[in-house]
Amino acid sequence: MIVAVNQLVAAQDVAAIPTLITVLGYNNPGAAVAAVDGLVALGSEAVPALLEQIDGYNYGARAWAIRAVALIGDPRALPVLLETAKGDFALSVRRAAARGLGTIDWSKLTSDQSVSSQREVLAVLIGAAQDPEWVVRYAAIAALEGLAKALVKPETQKPPILDCLDQVFHHDETPAVQARACRALEVLGEPS
Q1: 41 domain-assigned
Q2: Sign of the torsion angle spanned by Cα atoms 93, 84, 50, 111
Q3: CA–CA gap between residue 102 and residue 100 (Å, rounded)
Q4: pTM for this structure?
Q5: In-domain check, residue 38
Q6: I want to staple 34 with a disulfide (CB 3.0 to 4.6 A). Which of 5, 55, 71, 77 is the partner?
Q7: Domain count, the chain
Q8: Between the CA of residue 183 and those of 141, 144, 192, what are the distances in Å?
Q9: Residues ≥6 apart with Cβ < 8 Å to 169
Q10: Per-residue pLDDT for 14 more than 80?
Q11: Full residue range of the structural domain in which residue 158 is found
């Protein structure tokens, strides 16, 4: 199956999008990785179909689809990423959504749209930084770093990011999450 999916991906044809999305639902991680790579290579053209066909019942397929839209970074995925990061029952899906919120291509929105959307993203990521699952917190910290680098209005939105990163660095119970917060602070030029 992986060979067949790789051949389909190599064609780089938008007609393959529905089949690649179907592959995300199979219990085959190798094929799913190849399908995600193919969907990401097709970029924004794959986003509408991905958003329309996100599987509400198969959390594995949903996690792969969220990962694909996150890697593409298309802002049309924001509503789904925000909602999913806030409360999907599957930690792998919340993790993919939280991480995706840090990879949005803000240049595809107007300045006003970006400011408003970044405010929403910031609120959701600060909440995700307190998630009970450490992998979701880790992804939220990485996304906060990405968001901080892309802020349209850093003077008002960067301080809450730095406060959140500092809190996580000093108080999170998981060393890996603390280390990721420390790295984010360093990358953003803030000593921890």
Answers
A1: no
A2: negative
A3: 5
A4: 0.90
A5: no
A6: 5
A7: 1
A8: 10, 12, 9
A9: 178, 181, 182, 185, 192
A10: yes
A11: 106-192
Tokens of 103: 């990879």
3-state secondary structure of 37: helix
**Token couple for 98:** 């939280």
Tell me which residue of 84, 49, 48 sits closest to 66, measured CA to CA.
84
Taking a C-beta distance cutoff of 8 angstroms, is the pair 39, 21 a contact? yes
For residue 126 the two structure tokens come to 């600060």
Q: What is the DSSP letter of 53?
A: T
22-38: pLDDT as tens digits? 999 888 999 999 999 99
In angstroms, the Cα distances linking 130 to 33, 54, 58, 125, 173 are: 29, 26, 25, 9, 11
Residue 134 has pLDDT above 90, yes or no: yes
Provide the pLDDT confidence category of residue 88 given band limits of 50, 70 and 90. Answer: confident
